[in-house]
């Protein structure tokens, strides 16, 4: 896997991805099956600056430093790209509830799986689970204060949602159509109004 950087040319995250896809003009992708885009540091918007996956599925310990602009993770099939996206989804939504999150290396009861993200404000959010244990969150604010949310069940604590500032708008599946391209004018208007808070 390798990370490439592209500078965003728009303020909406989905528009940025579309611009990058169009401007890259990749002709020979070889064994690259697909790419994952992680967008960081759009001015005025809280973004992720670092992502850590520890004992999560195919990742023993992976640290991804996000640079300003669009970060594209590309690689051959079965290299762990999709599991990066799954890690962000687990952190954001505490899903899958019964799905496999532990890696092959995580076998003992004291072994812990976690996915951690750091925001541009300096806040760190971690979702964690021990083998046979329950899911919990650890929130480290920029001032160094720490809050633990143990045994959260199926929910995501409100403070975690606030710190991450991620919603369904920010996450797109592999088979999803390009954002807003196939929508009608009324749906586009509603989406834009929601973003600018009209």
Automatic annotation (TrEMBL):
Q: Which Gene3D superfamilies match?
A: P-loop containing nucleotide triphosphate hydrolases
Species lineage, top-down?
unclassified sequences, metagenomes, ecological metagenomes
This chain's protein is named Uncharacterized protein
Q: Which InterPro entries match?
A: P-loop_NTPase
